[in-house]
Sequence to fold (259 residues):
Amino acid sequence: MVIAVKNATKIFGKERVLDGVEVRFPSGAVSAVAGVRGSGKSVLLRLLSGELKPDLGKIVSKRSSLKAVFPKNGNLFNGLKISDHCTVWTLLYPGFDTELFRSLLARAGIPEGSKTVNLSESMKKWIGISFVFASNADIMIFDEPLLDLEPEMKALMLSMAAGAAEKGRSVIVALQEIAEFEKAVDFVVALNNGSLVLAGEAKKLLASHRLLPGASTISPDYKVIGPVLDERLAETSDDIGRKATLKEIVSGYINGSSS
Fold:
């Protein structure tokens, strides 16, 4: 464990946007935080990054751990050149890999001497993503990183996330749509209305859940989680129904918690 959320609650005004969330994010893994819009994903990531403090509970991480964050809006200082940003990140992160950063820019065809104000939104997003990977931080946090990216850059993002995890980093990614990230995910967290409805290793979840026809009679030996379109997700490793994808497992838990 590199970072953990201990019974964290966050309140804005009269609304509990996170309610008693408890989860430990593993090191050496890509963790996906899934949920529909407004489920609390971005707020959870802002707590993990330290931008926000929980009203109740706490965030615990190893004292020496460095965090690098790519926010949802991907904002960069538009008046600065990319090389100026690079200088700042090198000061913030002693292990910053300038060579890797430059190679990632080259893959996207972004001139290093450009001012960010002159670049497209997708290019700005890629620069932010590249900074986080090049930081070599212990904890890398991304909020909706795949939005607006070209397919080639999405594939590279997935490959980089998996590579960072192999080096022992904790990569935490908030997603509305987990399907695009499914092959890279090691650990899954799902939120619904600010509450944690699922947390577990991807391989174990895939091995212990099946989808059954919605009209079928289900044995009481199987725990029914929730509906997924016209099927039902059940917790079992028996060879019944069909295998569920991570997207379907997340959907079943979210739907089940809403009913």
The longest strand covers residues 15-25. Residues 156 and 213 are 37 Å apart (CA to CA). The chain has two domains: 3-197, 208-258. The first helix runs from residue 41 to 49.
